[in-house]
Structure formats: structure tokens, C-alpha cells
Design a protein that fits this description.
The complex is a heterodimer of chains A (542) and B (327). Chain A has 542 residues and is α/β, with parallel strands linked by helices. Chain A is 37% helix and 25% strand. Chain A has 20 helices and 20 strands. Chain A has helices at 48-56, 83-89, 111-122, 127-140, 146-150, 159-171, 189-206, 217-223, 241-246, 251-259, 327-334, 357-364, 384-394, 399-412, 429-441, 459-476, 487-493, 511-516, 521-529, 533-538; strands at 4-14, 23-33, 37-41, 65-73, 76-77, 94-97, 177-181, 209-214, 226-231, 234-240, 276-290, 298-312, 316-320, 342-347, 350-351, 367-370, 447-451, 479-484, 496-501, 504-510. In chain A, strand 9 and strand 10 form a beta hairpin. In chain A, helix 3 (111-122) packs across helix 4, helix 14 (399-412) crosses helix 15 (429-441) and helix 15 (429-441) runs parallel beside helix 16 (459-476). The longest helix of chain A is centred in the middle third of the chain and has 18 residues, at 189-206. The two termini of chain A are 37 Å apart. Chain B has 327 residues and is mainly α. Chain B has a domain at 101-276: MetI-like (MetI-like fold, Orthogonal Bundle). Chain B contains 12 helices and 2 strands. In chain B, a hairpin with a 4-residue loop joins strand 1 (86-87) and strand 2 (92-93). In chain B, helix 1 (2-34) packs antiparallel against helix 12 (292-320), helix 2 crosses helix 3 (52-62) and helix 5 (94-129) packs across helix 8 (184-221). Classes of the chains: A alpha/beta (542), B mainly alpha (327). The interface between A and B is medium-sized, with 33 and 24 residues.
């Protein structure tokens, strides 16, 4: 057995008095050994991030602080160290990788300088030495053109590239331990696969111990040597990855594993001659940005190129693609939020594209949207009842009747009918997404366009929302256009799949067929990128 | 990208200001036509009344017997060669009058900008560093009180205390004209005269910038990149100076750009209180004398000033924030 790098002993992190429980972390004991990746799995609110922050002394003091236990690292208790001693450990001996690469870097500082800062703080290297080291680090994390990269600002890099910069920063001084807090959650599937691969590669090369915090069992299967499952601030189960993933003991672990969307494709339930509800023919959309009053350089983004697709009545089609593939643009065109350059969009035989706003209004109620971000998509100053009732009221339903229907809809989506009198902030992310679904259903649409409706949710909540969408689809006889970057989610919900890349549909067909034999190389790369796919396929039918 | 096209960016922005300034001129010209009374009636009134023929004759001399659109056309045509017309009231070309009054106003605006921005940013920074301590409360409460106090009252009180009671500083004017100072003596004399108007005009903006800077610092301090810097082991002091400060500065600079136009308006009051021989005071006088040529000239000059200041702020912004893309 290899040496223990970090030993957490009965760690307790207290929450402020006004929160719903006393401890974010309530007596957790864990060991992290040399050269191992320990995954902490848990849903949001399980205290896993707080534990990671407690190790580095980054808790949002004074409201949240460690009140008990010990964190032993290199013979010292981290909780008992002075600020100065702690600073010399941060970035030097223990480094951290964060969840949000878009905001984790200072927007006004060159990337090279930000990496160099670590060396400046902890070493006595001369500027030329530091520069050399920064370039070496940038090469280590496989960023292109190191010389140019050093002089770039964060906004000039993609999310994946920024995360590589953060990793380079973490590696700068060969720390004994790296804490990675959901480092791939905000990234696309293929980027996620690359970053996971990079972390594993660097961890093997440098022999670093990694504490990897995640909510996704697929990622765990991909990367973990050992797993600890956390819930309500306590460890529910821990052990070697193969054991926890293959034969989970605790009920909670079993439930989490069961919630992982499988790669079993959904079968075509409809007869082939069912008629077409939505037809898109040769749709083209290009965004142009001209600068200033007198023109100048014009940037063009070809967001949709000759897109054609059909959606049958009472069926569902998944548009799968990464960010920037044009899938959201297509959705916005279909619900009429965006005008098309050319091409045709028909719903129920009626042309939608090319209409003015006023002409479009009678059609609005046929197509409704469920949005990605359950926090930003509900007006915080409106009661739930008003939010849901607004659509029907615009279509001439009286307020009393609309509110009555809203109550019924809330019951249908699994919330209490008296939620009509409450405000959005009183609900969790999953509950808000249910409200968003109720709002979409309120005007009795024929087609629901769901734009990444579950990507902001925890796996177990994700499963519930997906099941709800599925049930409602059947009972309301709805058709659904489901936009996602996650093939696993697409497989559970949709009978048909269209894969989008750079504004084009590269492959389209029945889910079962594409899953059995993906023909386009891009589709195959998407399959390869699914985290923990071998483990998921071994789970059997769920 | 930045240095290469900065010149052409500025050139293009200057080009864009031409329609803006023309628009300002036209609107002002038409607005002044709506005002009752004109120079001829005022002159006649001051002479204790005059026959209608005399008034008509005056109007013909000033070109006011023409239809409005021809007057406007003539004015615009003259404007193209920077001929702003003649002030019959002051018996001097408008441009000469403006240029004589321009630099006192620029001096007052410049010193106000430096004092209010400099001290405002400093106060906001300190309040944020001492957040929720008594020092922060003192700064914040003081800022609110200043913010809510009328400008003219502050001016009068400052004169009362520092000029009349303590007799440290002069009450009004820009320099002691009868002393005939030269060289450094003159600079010192003007500086002494500048203190009270600057303080009066600065206080409001100082409070505004201090409050904004404090809020901006606190907001930035909670962002992810600050956590990243802490996780690197960076000290709190360095985090403030290297990371937070520059990010927090951006909204303050934006606000300062917007407020500079307002500064010009505020200087009318201050120039009146302290008899500061600037554009504001000139505007005040010419308004009551119905000296429309002069008034239009002042409006034109103010519009040009505001446009230049805004352009300057935008250029500064390009250097402060790499995310701003020009061209």
C-alpha cells in the first residue's frame, strides 16, 4: 500500500445559522494515497465542494468554517496552520482546478502572466527561467502555439483551452495533491473527454494524487481509482472504483447509479406512415456582425447550412451537437425567435418561416420552448401562477380559468397546486424546470422545443425530469424537438437522432440504428467521448 | 490588433461625431427659435422702448428678418468654415469670446475630474478594504451626505468658512487682476483661486465614484478568478492590487465618461457662484441677453467637448480592457 498524502479525520464544516442544516460536512474521514485518483461523488448540496475548499482553507469565511476534525498533510494539520503557512501550501503543495473555466481566469491579465504568478509567489526563479517554465507547462497541457498562447487573454481562448490553462497553473510546481472540483462539468462531451484524458495522463506522469469532485458516475467510471459517495455532508460509501461501480452497497449509491442515463437506444414506437408535424427544408442562417455606422470589417458565422429535417406527430427527435454546432440557432428559428435567411419551416402544413411578427402570433401557441437554465428563465418578480397563466391569457382565456389550469398543470408535473402563489426563488433547480415545463404545456402546444432542459441538473434530478417529459409527451400527444449535447440523454428520450456539426446535420436516423452503427466519423467521436461508456454498457437495460 | 488599427479607429469615430454635432446644432437652433423675444427686442427694451421701424431695422441687421430655414442654412454654412458668427451684444466674434472662456472651463473641469476620480477611487478602495468596519461606515455615510447635498449650498458654505471666516482663500474670480502677477506667481495665484470651485464641483462626483468603486470592488472580490488567485497562494494585498483593482476600475471609468457631460452643466452653477470666467458663466449671461449667436456657439463648443471626452474614455477603455474589440 502506497503512502497516504492527505488524511481527513472527522472533518466538520459548519454552515451559517440561517441555512437548512447545521453542517455542510458532518464528520467526514478520508485518506488520499499517492498516485491515486479519488473521486468524491455527490449531488449538489452534498457538501463535496465545501470539503474540497476546506482542505485549501478557501471556505467563504466567516459564515462557513471548519469547526472540527483534522486535515493532515505532510505531517501538519492544515486546519491549524496560520494564514501565511497556508498560503505557502496553496498553489505550491496543493493546487486546485475549478469548475467554471470561463470565469476562473482574470479577464484583464495575459494567460502567461497568470501561470507565471504561481512561480513568482512560490519560487525564486528569475524572469527568463519563469518564462521557460511557463512555455514548458503550456506544452505539457497540449495547448497549441505556446508562444502565442502566453500573450493571449482568456477571452481569446475556448472553454477547453482555458481549462488547460488552469491545469497548467495547478501543475506549475508539481504539487503533491490536486483538487479538481467538477473540472469538466461546464464543458462539451468531446472536450470533457480530452480534459479527463489530460488529467489522467499528467497524473500518471507526475505521480500526483488527485481528489476529483464530480456528480457524474460516467466520469467516475472513466477516471477513478477509488470512489467515495457523499450525501448530506456524510460519506455513504467508499471503496475501489470497480467495487463501488460494479456492486454498489448503499441504497443511495444504487439509486445514483440507476439514474445514469444508459446507452440503450429507445426504439421506434410509431408506425412509419404517421404524418409529419414539423418539416424544415434547406434552412439557411448566417449571423453577420458589421462594426459601426460606416461598416468596416464584417464577421460571418454560418450557423445553419442547408438544414432539412422532419418530425413526425407524437414522436421526438434529438438534435445532438456541441456548443457552436448551430443546434440552438435551429431551435430559435423553429420557434420563430430568429428569422431565417432562406429555406422553409412548416408546422402542420403551415409555413412559419418568412412571416412577420404579427403574422406569426397565431402560431406561437403551437410551439413552446423549455429552456436550459431553470434559474434565468423564470421571472423572479412574478408568481408561479402568473408565469404559467400568461400564455393562455394572451390567447383569450380568462384569468380565473387560466390559474385553475395552472394548478392542474402543476399537479401534473409533480408539484403542489398551491405553488401558484409562490415565487421562483422558493424552488430548487429541478422544481423550476418542472415549472418551465408546465408553462410550456399551458397553451396546449403541438410541439415542444426543449433546449438542453436537463444539462443544468444533477443526474438523479435529470432522470426525474426526463421521465416526466416522457410521460407528458404520451398523455398530451406531444411532439418534441430535444436539443442536447449528451448522447446518453438523447438515447433515453428520443426515437430519432440528428447529429449536428458546424451548422450541418452530418447524420440522421432512428436512434437504434445510429447507436448500432454510427456511420459519420464525428458521430463515432461523440460516442467515444461519452464518459464511462464501457461501464455504462455493462449496466444492462435500465 | 490594438495599436495597428487604433489610429483608424479614432479617425472613424471622429467621422461619426460629425452627424452627432450637426444634429445638436440643428436642434439647438430650432429650440432657440421657439424662445420668446430676440436680441432686437431686448436692445430696444433696454433703450427704454423703440419704434417698430427701429426694431425691424435691427432685425434686418442681425439677419433675423429671413425665414428660419434660410437663417439655419446660413448658420450651418458659416459653421463649416468655423465662423460662429458675431455677438452684437459683446461686440466681438463669437469664436474669440469662446476661446477666451474655454481654457478656464477646461482648467476647472480637468482639476475636478482629477480630484473627484482620484479621491473617489481611493475612498471607494479603502471602504471596500475596510468593509463593514467603522471606517467603512464613516466613508459610506459621508459619501451619502455629500451625494445628497446641493452644489450651490456647498459652494456658499465653503466661501463662508474658508474665505470669510478663515480668510485662507479668495472668494471669487480666477486671478487677482490688479496684482499683475507673472510667471510662477500667477500660477500660484490661479491655483489658489481654483481650490474652492474645484472642491465644490468635485464633492458630488467624488461621492458618486467612491460609492461605485466600493460596490465594484466588493462585487469583483466575490468572483471566481479571485478564488483562483487565492488558490495559487497569492497574498490578499497582491490580489487586491494585481487582480481586483483593475477589474473594479472599469465601471468607474464608464461612469466618469458619462458624467463628464454633466460636469459641464454643473460648472454653470459653480462658475456663477465663484465668478469663474468660464463657458458656463458666459452661457448664463448670453441667455439673459438673448445673445443667440453666442449661445449657439457655446452649445456647439459643449457638444464638441462632450464628444471628445467620450472618445477619450473609449480609447482609455481599449487599453484597460483587452476584451474590447476595436475596428
Amino acid at each position: 500500500m502506497t503512502a497516504i498524502v492527505l488524511a481527513i479525520d472527522e472533518l466538520k464544516v459548519a454552515l451559517p445559522a440561517w441555512s437548512d442544516r447545521m453542517f455542510a460536512v458532518g464528520g467526514v474521514s478520508l485518506d488520499i494515497r499517492q498516485k491515486e485518483i479519488l473521486c468524491i461523488v455527490g449531488e449538489s448540496g452534498s457538501g463535496k465542494s465545501m470539503m474540497g475548499k476546506a482542505i485549501l482553507g478557501l471556505l467563504p469565511a466567516p459564515h462557513v468554517r471548519a469547526v472540527g476534525g483534522r486535515i493532515m498533510f505532510e505531517g501538519r494539520d492544515l486546519l491549524a496552520l496560520s494564514d501565511d503557512e497556508m498560503r505557502s501550501i496553496r498553489g505550491g503543495r496543493i493546487a486546485m482546478i475549478f469548475q467554471e473555466p470561463m470565469t476562473a481566469l482574470n479577464p484583464l491579465m495575459k494567460v502567461g502572466q497568470q501561470i507565471e504568478e504561481v512561480l513568482e509567489i512560490h519560487t525564486s526563479m528569475t524572469p527568463p527561467q519563469r518564462r521557460e517554465r511557463v512555455l514548458a507547462l503550456i506544452r505539457d497541457v497540449h495547448l497549441p502555439e505556446p508562444e502565442r498562447m502566453v500573450a493571449s487573454y482568456p477571452h481569446q481562448l475556448s472553454g477547453g483551452q482555458r481549462q488547460r490553462v488552469v491545469i497548467a497553473m495547478a501543475l506549475a510546481l508539481e504539487p503533491a495533491l490536486i483538487i479538481a472540483d467538477e473540472p469538466t462539468t461546464a464543458l462539451d462531451v468531446t472536450t470533457q473527454a480530452q480534459i479527463l484524458h489530460l488529467i489522467k495522463e499528467l497524473q500518471r506522469a507526475h505521480g500526483t494524487a488527485v481528489l476529483f469532485i464530480t456528480h457524474d458516475f460516467g466520469v467516475v467510471a472513466e477516471i477513478a481509482d477509488r470512489v467515495a459517495v457523499m450525501r448530506h455532508g456524510e460519506i455513504v460509501e467508499q471503496g475501489p472504483a470497480t467495487q463501488v461501480l460494479g456492486a454498489p452497497q448503499a441504497d443511495y449509491t444504487k439509486a445514483l447509479v440507476a439514474a445514469v442515463p444508459g446507452l440503450k437506444p429507445r426504439l421506434q414506437e410509431l408506425d412509419a406512415d404517421s404524418n409529419v408535424l414539423l418539416r424544415v427544408t434547406n434552412l439557411e442562417k448566417t449571423y453577420r456582425t458589421s462594426s459601426g455606422l460606416f461598416g468596416g470589417t464584417v464577421r460571418e458565422v454560418h450557423a445553419a447550412k442547408k438544414i432539412s429535417l422532419e418530425l413526425k406527430r407524437e414522436s421526438s427527435l434529438a438534435l445532438v451537437g456541441e456548443s457552436g454546432s448551430g443546434k440552438s440557432t435551429l431551435a430559435r428559428c423553429i420557434i420563430g425567435l430568429e428569422s431565417v435567411d432562406s429555406g422553409l419551416i412548416e408546422i402542420d402544413g403551415e409555413r412559419i418561416s418568412g412571416r412577420t411578427r404579427a403574422e406569426l402570433r397565431p402560431f406561437r401557441k403551437h410551439v413552446q420552448m423549455v429552456f436550459q437554465d431553470p434559474y434565468a428563465s423564470l421571472n423572479p418578480r412574478q408568481r408561479i401562477g402568473d408565469i404559467i397563466a400568461l400564455g393562455p391569457m394572451l390567447n383569450g382565456v380568462s384569468r380565473e380559468q387560466a390559474i385553475g389550469e395552472a394548478r392542474e398543470l402543476l399537479r401534473l408535473v409533480g408539484l403542489k397546486p398551491d405553488a401558484v402563489d409562490r415565487y421562483p426563488h422558493e424552488f430548487s433547480g429541478g422544481q423550476r424546470q418542472r415549472i418551465g415545463i408546465a408553462r410550456a404545456l399551458a397553451v396546449k402546444p403541438k410541439l415542444i422545443v426543449a433546449d438542453e432542459p436537463v444539462s443544468a441538473l444533477d443526474v438523479s434530478v435529470q432522470k426525474q425530469v426526463l421521465e416526466l417529459l416522457n410521460d407528458l409527451r404520451k398523455s398530451f400527444g406531444l411532439s418534441m424537438l430535444f436539443i442536447t449535447h449528451d448522447l446518453r440523454v438523447a438515447a433515453t428520450v428520443c426515437e430519432e437522432i440528428a447529429i449536428m456539426q458546424r451548422g450541418e446535420i452530418v447524420e440522421r436516423g432512428a436512434t437504434a440504428e445510429i447507436f448500432a452503427a454510427p456511420s459519420h466519423p464525428y458521430t463515432r467521436s461523440l460516442f467515444d467521448a461519452v464518459p464511462g461508456r464501457e461501464w455504462i454498457s455493462s449496466l444492462g437495460p435500465s | 490588433m490594438k495599436s495597428g488599427s487604433l489610429g483608424s479607429y479614432i479617425a472613424r469615430r471622429l467621422l461619426q461625431t460629425i452627424p452627432v454635432i450637426l444634429g445638436v446644432v440643428v436642434v439647438n437652433f430650432l429650440l432657440l427659435q421657439l424662445a420668446p423675444g430676440d436680441l432686437a427686442t431686448v436692445l430696444a427694451g433696454e433703450a427704454g422702448g423703440a419704434p417698430k421701424e427701429y426694431i425691424d431695422q435691427l432685425r434686418a441687421r442681425f439677419g433675423q428678418d429671413q425665414p428660419v430655414y434660410i437663417q439655419l442654412f446660413n448658420y450651418m454654412r458659416n459653421l463649416l468654415v468655423l465662423d460662429l458668427g458675431y455677438s452684437f451684444r459683446q461686440s466681438a466674434p463669437v469664436l474669440d469670446l469662446l476661446l477666451a472662456r474655454l481654457w478656464p472651463t477646461l482648467l476647472l473641469m480637468g482639476s475636478t475630474l482629477v480630484v473627484s476620480l482620484g479621491l473617489g477611487i481611493l475612498m471607494g478602495l479603502l471602504a471596500a478594504l475596510w468593509v463593514r468596519t467603522w471606517k467603512d461606515h464613516v466613508i459610506s455615510v459621508a459619501a451619502i451626505i455629500v451625494y445628497a447635498t446641493p452644489l450651490f449650498w456647498v459652494g456658499l458654505m465653503l466661501v463662508l468658512v474658508f474665505s470669510i471666516w478663515l480668510d485662507w482663500l479668495p472668494t471669487s474670480g480666477m486671478e487677482n487682476v490688479v496684482a499683475f502677477h507673472e510667471g510662477w506667481d500667477r500660477v500660484v495665484d490661479i491655483a489658489r483661486h481654483l481650490v474652492l470651485p474645484t472642491v465644490t464641483l468635485s464633492l458630488f462626483y467624488l461621492a458618486l465614484y467612491a460609492r461605485l468603486m466600493r460596490a465594484s470592488m466588493l462585487e469583483q472580490r466575490g468572483l471566481d478568478y479571485v478564488t483562483t488567485a487565492r488558490a495559487k497562494g497569492q497574498s490578499d494585498r497582491k490580489i487586491t492590487t494585481r487582480h481586483v483593482f483593475r477589474n473594479a476600475l472599469l465601471p468607474v471609468v464608464t461612469m466618469a465618461g458619462v458624467q463628464t457631460g454633466g460636469l459641464l452643466g454643473g460648472s454653470v452653477v459653480v462658475e456663477a457662484i465663484f465668478a469663474w470666467p468660464g463657458l458656463g458663466q458666459l452661457a448664463f449671461q448670453s441667455l439673459f441677453a438673448r445673445d443667440y449667436n453666442l449661445l449657439l456657439g457655446i452649445f456647439f463648443m459643449s457638444a464638441v467637448l462632450v464628444v471628445i471626452v467620450n472618445l477619450t474614455v473609449d480609447v482609455i477603455y481599449v487599453f484597460l480592457d483587452p476584451r474590447i474589440r476595436i475596428g
